[in-house]
Design goal:
The chain is an alpha/beta fold. It has 4 domains: about 170 residues, 3-Layer(bba) Sandwich (FAD/NAD(P)-binding domain); about 110 residues, FAD/NAD(P)-binding domain, CATH 3.50.50.60; about 110 residues, FAD/NAD(P)-binding domain (3-Layer(bba) Sandwich); about 80 residues, 3-Layer(aba) Sandwich (Oxidized Rhodanese, domain 1). About 25% of the residues lie in helices and about 25% in strands. It contains 15 helices and 31 strands. The strands form 8 sheets. Strands 3-2-1-7-19 form a 5-stranded parallel sheet. The chain has a 5-stranded parallel sheet with strand order 9-16-10-11-12, covered by helices on one side. Helix 1 runs parallel beside helix 8. About 45% of the residues are buried.
Length: about 550
């Protein structure tokens, strides 16, 4: 059996390794257009920023390793020009000698990855303009930093690569401005959580410009659409990627609705004996079963392993994705899993939403705030999605939630989880428990929540809602919600007659606990429609109150 793999980064090398483990007799050949293989793309920004000293730690396996370990020959600097599905042949070009030749396969695995997607900007062809997609890109950018010692940089785009490079370039000593064309950062968060994260970045002094684009790139500065100039000795284009499907299209392989290669759960394409995996394929949502394109190293490795297993007679199949992802910037971490609020609504779910702000560990071990937004289906009471922003333990909690969603947990089950506790890493009731308690109270015990977004919209529409600030007077006078009346929780029982029990009430405090206590008092005294503000005053201010991006522009 002759197996050919096109591409030798994450998915391709995973495929060849699994195929060899299953079948010692198969002849396996791999063609890779680049010079470097099996590297960690996720580590590249940190190498550029100096957090990783040795580039070799990101490329631990070379051609010799795969030859000795798996008896597989990987031919680098070899570009596959065409595929003939009928003859089961590929046309290959040796980029070093320009020699072209034909190779034949019994099974073909496409692991062609993704390519950067660039906006049309005048001047982007200049030598100080880069994108970061490959290991070679990282080496080139690093060499530029060492040779030219740039002082300023502009990053275009605020996805994972843009944010990771923000930290990397600042760590390398540059003054960096992040430019984003949209109203929020492009990291897959709901608007309220994206705004919360932006507040934290701005508090750290990050230069963030939203709702603007670059009109032209010049030698040492860029010109924004409004004519403003920003100093830029280096420009990084981090405006996303698109699946590399050129070969697949030429071979008549069907593409999915996302523009990536359409595969079934065993990675089979529409063409006989051709499989695909990694960043070039379309996967599907585990929750909705709808197609999705979510290029991540973890997904690439998983789908590569499945492809390598199936072509050698295995039975592995893909079970769907939750879109679980995480990015760290400075000491902050933001993560998500499952459906966003908008995705869940579009899928037809009736939602209950809660925001919780709790310490990530005991306060006497310097616990810091962890913000969690959780989305559940009112009908089934199952978790649909979670987003989290904090400092420590974000990964731990998002992995717990991903597991809960995968196995269809209902909100009442969260409180009963026997989670690991020590004051250095957690609280006795973990933030995961609090999420379960809040959702369970809302869905099963008559203690509904109202999100800051819903409250803001209903007040803007002129709806008559009694908004009650239950904090102490000094906190109220310092900052309070629009139209809020101050009734401290300790005084509330004596002031019940001043409220209309037939009119909707929203109670709030700083983060939700005292607001919930006030909600209980009102409900127990016969008030019919009482909500607690999800996440409290702090959540409202950081998700709804207007804030400006940094104006620390360096005029040319």
């Amino acid at each position: 059996m002759k197996i050919i793999v096109i591409g030798a980064v994450a998915a391709g090398t995973s495929a060849l390794a699994k195929a060899r483990r299953n079948n010692e007799q198969a002849e396996i050949s791999v063609y890779e257009k680049g010079e470097l293989i099996s590297y960690s793309s996720c580590g590249l920004p940190y190498y550029i920023g100096g957090n990783i000293d040795s580039f070799q730690t990101l490329t631990p396996r070379d051609v010799t390793f795969f030859k000795e370990r798996y008896a597989v020959e990987i031919k680098t600097a070899h570009e596959v020009l065409a595929i003939d599905p009928e003859k089961k042949e590929i046309q290959v070009k040796d980029l070093k000698t320009n020699r072209q030749f034909t190779d034949r396969y019994d099974a073909l695995i496409l692991a062609t990855g993704a390519t950067p997607s660039f906006p049309l900007i005048k001047g982007m062809e200049q030598s100080h303009v880069y994108a970061l997609k490959s290991a070679q890109d990282a080496l080139t950018i690093k060499q530029h930093l060492m040779s030219y010692h740039p002082k300023t940089a502009v990053i275009v785009g605020s996805g994972f690569i843009g944010l990771e490079m923000l930290e990397g370039l600042i760590s390398a000593g540059l003054s960096v401005t992040l430019v984003e064309k949209n109203q929020q950062l492009s990291i897959g968060l709901d608007p309220d959580m994206a705004h919360y994260f932006e507040h934290l970045l701005l508090e750290k002094g990050v230069n963030l410009l939203k709702q603007t684009t670059i009109q032209e790139i010049l030698q040492d500065h860029v010109v924004l659409q409004d004519g403003t100039s920003l100093s830029a000795d280096l420009v990084l284009l981090a405006t996303g990627v698109r699946p590399n499907v050129t070969l697949a299209k030429k071979a008549g392989i069907e593409l999915g609705t996302t523009g990536a290669i359409k595969v079934d759960s065993t990675m089979k394409t529409s063409q006989e004996a051709i499989y695909a995996c990694g960043d070039c394929i379309e996967t599907f949502s585990r929750l909705t079963q709808q197609p999705m394109y979510h290029p991540l190293g973890s997904t690439a490795n998983k789908t590569g392993r499945i492809a390598g297993d199936v072509v050698t007679g295995g039975t592995l199949s893909y079970q769907g994705s939750l879109g679980t992802s995480l990015v760290s910037v400075f000491d902050l971490t933001v993560a998500r899993t499952g459906l966003s609020e908008d995705e869940a609504r579009q899928a037809g779910f009736d939602l209950e939403i809660c925001h919780t702000i709790k310490p990530d560990k005991a306060l006497y071990f310097k616990g810091k705030e962890l913000m969690i937004k959780a989305i559940a289906d009112k009908k089934t009471q199952k978790l649909l999605g979670v987003q989290a922003i904090g400092y420590d333990g974000v990964d731990k909690r998002i992995d717990v939630f991903a597991t809960l969603i995968t196995y269809g947990a209902t909100v009442d089950e969260l409180f009963h989880l026997d989670l690991a506790y020590a004051p250095q890493v957690a609280t006795t009731k973990d933030p995961v428990h609090y999420v379960g308690m809040a959702l369970d109270n809302a869905l099963n015990h008559g203690r509904p929540l109202m999100t800051p977004t819903e409250l803001h919209q209903r007040l803007q529409q002129g709806e008559e809602i009694q908004v009650i600030d239950t904090r102490v007077r000094a906190q109220y006078e310092k900052n309070h919600l629009p139209q809020a009346r101050h009734l401290a929780q300790s005084e509330l029982r004596d002031q019940l007659k001043t409220l209309n029990p037939q009119q909707p009430v929203v109670t709030y405090c700083n983060k939700g606990v005292t607001g919930n206590a006030a909600q209980n008092i009102l409900i127990n005294h016969g008030f019919k429609c009482v909500y607690n503000l999800s996440g409290g005053q702090k959540c409202y201010q950081k998700t709804q109150a207007p804030h400006r991006a940094s104006q620390q522009k360096k005029e040319e």
